[in-house]
Amino acid sequence: MAAVKYRRVLLKLSGEALAGEGGWGLDPAVLRLVSREVREVTERGVQVAIVVGGGNIIRGAQVSERIGVDRVTADYMGLLATVINALALQDFMEKEGLVTRVQTAIEMHQIAEPYIRRRAIRHLEKGRVVIFAGGTGSPYFTTDTAAALRAIEIEADALLMAKRGVSGVYDKDPRLSPDAVMFKELDYMEVLNKGLKVMDATAVALCKDNNMPIHVFDLVQPGNIIKVILGEEVGTLVGGTSGDPGGAQRR
Fold first, then answer.
1. I need a surface site. Which of 8, 53, 141, 233 has the fewest CB within 10 A?
2. What is the chain's mean pLDDT, rounded?
3. Bridge partners, residue 114, by sequence
4. 3-state helix, strand and coil shares in percent for the chain, rounded to the nearest 5
5. pLDDT digits (tens, 9 = 90+) for 86-100
6. ∠ CA(158), CA(164), CA(170), 5° rounding?
């Protein structure tokens, strides 16, 4: 069995990725794909934590703007959506034979543990998959920022950003521009200065300050999670030494 590059990772799953092609709700095929790939990764001895988004159900900023709900209230609604996604993912993972724990930044004892850093690390050391829900527990912070924060707190080796239908970081939207160029590697400052859509600026800055590598790749391509763990060239690595567009690959 090939040696792994990372021993502990934080996998960020956006709500849109969990929705699949439908764009809303939950796609069982995606939940099953993630569960099986995480099982394969854990069988190699890798410790896996997951942060889930909630955009497939509700986005706080959009709800606030569209129907006039107070922004703070709308953001809390979005955080609750991440708990729904976490519970669904937990169910699919346990059907694959994984032992899981859901921890929430907003306490709800009947369905999940509260987020406690030391307990989360202990779960990982015992081979359990830990799913973090509820974002950071505060409004105005995205689940990207929550992913960066949790990755740093649990001392992960890398942050894996799984996207839906986007194979990496491009200089422009590849769905609108056929000549878009995908970067193999980027520096944190290049992402910030160029305004590239990797994750929000707060999350990138957190990763930069703590030297946390970020892998951006396509979730729906089977095997990509395992390939990243093995150190294969998949998607875009942020935090590498070369972000020169001359080294980018054409789509």
1. 233
2. 90
3. 104
4. 40, 20, 40
5. 999 999 999 999 999
6. 75
